[in-house]
User: Which sequence fits this backbone?
């Protein structure tokens, strides 16, 4: 569609195309509709889109609503540790370990950081923008977000 809107038919077709299990007569949840719409549209990822779909998946699949800030911090630290472990293995020349391995863990780091921020009532996009600009000002750099 020219205006970027996704029709229910497109969403249903994407849902069915990706063979997601659904019981007969079960309606798609809003989270599933959003996921199907994002897959169907292949849009550029934004912090807002990541936050919405990641929170929906976290709440519905991983039941993480009851996690404490410490739980989120430990999960994030674990992902950072995994990325660092792959980086160490690349540095020492271990066979079969690539930058893609580090990249997968870095993606987890961003997802966990966003979920942690959401659970603290914070907006990661806003936090990043403010921090980036603060550092630019402190160092006299002209770049701003």
Assistant:
């Amino acid at each position: 569609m020219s205006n970027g809107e996704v029709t229910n038919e497109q969403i249903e077709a994407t849902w069915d195309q990706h063979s997601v299990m659904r019981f007969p007569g079960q309606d798609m949840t809003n989270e599933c509709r959003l996921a199907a719409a994002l897959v169907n549209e292949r849009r550029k990822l934004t912090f807002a889109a990541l936050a919405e779909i990641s929170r929906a998946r976290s709440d519905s699949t991983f039941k993480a609503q009851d996690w404490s800030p410490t739980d989120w911090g430990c999960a994030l630290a674990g992902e950072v540790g995994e990325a660092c472990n792959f980086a160490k293995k690349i540095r020492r020349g271990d066979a079969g370990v690539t930058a893609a391995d580090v990249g997968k863990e870095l993606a987890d780091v961003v997802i966990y950081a966003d979920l942690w921020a959401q659970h603290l009532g914070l907006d990661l996009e806003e936090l990043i923008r403010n921090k980036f600009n603060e550092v630019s000002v402190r160092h006299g750099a002209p770049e701003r977000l």
Summary: DSSP finds six helices and no strands in the chain. The radius of gyration is 19 Å. Residues 129 and 145 are 6 Å apart (CA to CA). Residues 18-25 have pLDDT under 50 and may be disordered.
